[in-house]
């Protein structure tokens, strides 16, 4: 069954409510700003802090200063209405009989950091949070990403990424990966020796959870 992975930018007014409209039940919320109270059975069970992410809850409410959410959804095609500003949507061919997980992490580059040509074990959407990142996917043209820009990586084409030399650079991503690599890196260098040559990056994993399609 065909799926799409999409990224939606939601801005919630103070006290406004969020309700999940996912058909597949696979989604992640990354809180880019403000405050979000996670609810269950009409009660607040947790508060999501800015710069953190969680599996998409069934219900939540923005705090007194409102909330800006980057909402990643894996939805069956045709996708349901987004209810927000769609930054990117990309089809994904996922075998229903296979076991999958959804992972959300943030990647923080050292200034001038380079991720030498590499692939991943699955596809996903990235969104630049700060700084500047020059991204080359396969034989395509290099694109300069700036805050708010989103892009898709299938995991099959090699990717080269070079971060700004004069400002901190970070992006958040959500990937759909084989369940057997839960807790493990999905990254594979085209030249295995590049693992020692790439400049440092820091990874913060927020969600690494199995999903049922």
* Stretches with pLDDT under 50, minimum 5 residues: none
What profile does the largest beta sheet have? 7 strands, antiparallel
* Overall radius of gyration: 17 Å
The outline comes out as globular
Helix proportion range: under 10%
What structural class do helix, strand and pairing data support?
mainly beta
* Beta strand %: over 45%
Query: What would you call the quaternary organization?
Result: single chain
Give the tally of β-strands: 17
Could you explain the architecture of this structure?
By secondary structure, the protein is an all-beta fold. Helix content is 0%, strand content 61%. The strands form three sheets. Strands 1, 2, 3, 4, 5, 6 and 7 form a seven-stranded antiparallel β-sheet that branches. Strands 13-10-15-8-17 form a five-stranded antiparallel β-sheet, with no helix packed on it. The protein has no helices and 17 strands. The chain is globular. The protein has strands spanning 2-12, 17-19, 26-40, 43-48, 53-55, 59-76, 85-93, 100-109, 114-120, 124-130, 133-137, 143-145, 150-153, 159-163, 169-178, 187-189, 201-211.
